[in-house]
Amino acid sequence: MRSRYCAFVQRDEPYLLRTWHPRTRPARVGFDSGMRWTGLEILDTADGSAFHATGTVTFRASFRGGALHERSRFERVEGAWVYVDGEFLED
């Protein structure tokens, strides 16, 4: 989760696509040129250890003027954790 947040901050599209599940990965990542990320707070995790095939991370990513609150689902693909999808949450 932290590495994907950093990739969004740096607009590192190749990394984001590489760490996105093949069945949900978009063709491109659309970056908002005016977006200025200011911080990441991990609020909760479930599963996702070395003994799991799936896991979730609930986080709040702050940006100038607001925040994104999401519960993200991850799965292992060929041993690597990849982002599947997320559910937006209300603050």
Question: Would you write up a description of this structure?
Answer:
The protein is α+β, with helices and mostly antiparallel strands and 91 residues long. It has one domain (2-27, 37-88): Nuclear Transport Factor 2, Chain: A (Roll), CATH 3.10.450. Helices cover 16% and strands 46% of the residues. The protein has helices at 2-10, 13-18; strands spanning 37-47, 54-63, 66-77, 80-88. Strands 1-2-3-4 form a four-stranded antiparallel sheet, covered by helices on one side. The mean pLDDT is 96.
Topology:
Blueprint: H1 2-10, H2 13-18, E1 37-47, E2 54-63, E3 66-77, E4 80-88
Antiparallel strand pairs: 1-2, 2-3, 3-4
What is the H-and-E element order?
HHEEEE
Unreliable residue runs:
none
CATH architecture: Roll
Count of domain modules: 1
Mind telling me the C-alpha Rg?
13 Å
Structural class: alpha+beta
Structural key phrases:
Nuclear Transport Factor 2, Chain: A; 2 helices; 4-stranded antiparallel sheet; alpha+beta; 16% helix
Summary, kept brief:
The chain has 91 residues and is α+β, with helices and mostly antiparallel strands. 16% of the residues lie in helices and 46% in strands.
